[in-house]
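User: Here's a structure from my thesis project, written as structure tokens. My advisor, Dr. K., wants to see whether a designed sequence matches the one we expressed. Can you design one independently, without my sequence as a hint?
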């Protein structure tokens, strides 16, 4: 059977992907920010900043950050968009604990709220959020289409989804270098700097399998989003997807 992003698991265990992903991010939470900066050469900071430009004209007051992790994207929204309030959700309590500490240090604890929730069953009413952001999380979803449908459901009409995901460069020699980097350097760095080397074998594999470009746009349209588009950064190593709710 061909592997898909939904069937790829972090560990060789009988637990569901939902449970395994939560366990994995709980395990790597203390080193996650360091590893992100190391493995992206700090480009993750630039990618988030560039993506948020696509929300500036909208001036969203209430933003949902799906798969918020340690809260970097949520915190960035305050710097670039000045929303009234942001809710960040994630499966991993340990990742969000790091985010809560960062929010407190920034004086944003009253405006940035973290909630443990399932991205496939969002605990919010229809048409609640002015904008939704999500970075580097959708490839870990147990059902990508359902996750997109849930985001569409809770987004207000006229709202926008800003979705960042790692992707595979398609042209030579960037594709060869990227494959070598993800298959060799990322697992080695994970083994050296974290307590869970297996996580950094799973994460590069998930990049290879996640829907790319037009295929991700197709899923977004199937979920109900209109005016979808995508833009690549850093020679195709990261892709920004945009979708509006009519």
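Assistant: Designed independently from the structure alone:
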């Amino acid at each position: 059977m061909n592997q898909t992003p939904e069937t790829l698991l972090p560990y060789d265990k009988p637990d569901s992907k939902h449970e395994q992903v939560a366990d994995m991010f709980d395990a790597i939470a203390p080193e996650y920010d360091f590893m992100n900066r190391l493995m992206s050469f700090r480009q993750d900071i630039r990618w988030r900043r560039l993506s948020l430009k696509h929300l500036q004209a909208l001036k969203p007051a209430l933003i949902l950050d799906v798969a918020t992790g340690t809260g970097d994207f949520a915190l960035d929204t305050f710097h670039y968009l000045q929303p009234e309030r942001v809710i960040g959700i994630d499966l991993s309590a340990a990742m969000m604990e790091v985010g809560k500490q960062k929010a407190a240090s920034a004086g944003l604890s009253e405006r940035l709220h973290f909630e443990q929730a399932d991205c496939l069953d969002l605990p919010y009413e229809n048409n609640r959020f002015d904008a939704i952001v999500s970075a580097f999380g959708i490839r870990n979803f147990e059902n990508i289409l359902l996750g997109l449908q849930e985001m569409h459901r809770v987004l207000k009409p006229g709202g926008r989804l800003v979705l960042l995901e790692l992707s595979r460069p398609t042209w030579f020699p960037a594709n060869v270098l990227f494959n070598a980097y993800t298959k060799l350097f990322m697992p080695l760095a994970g083994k050296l700097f974290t307590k869970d080397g297996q996580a950094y074998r799973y994460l590069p594999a998930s990049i290879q399998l996640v829907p790319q470009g037009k295929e991700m746009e197709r899923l977004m349209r199937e979920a109900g989003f209109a005016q979808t588009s995508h833009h690549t950064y850093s020679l195709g190593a990261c892709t920004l997807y945009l979708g509006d709710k009519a």
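When you compare it with your expressed construct, this may help: Residues 17-166+211-244 form a domain with the Rossmann fold fold (CATH 3.40.50.150).
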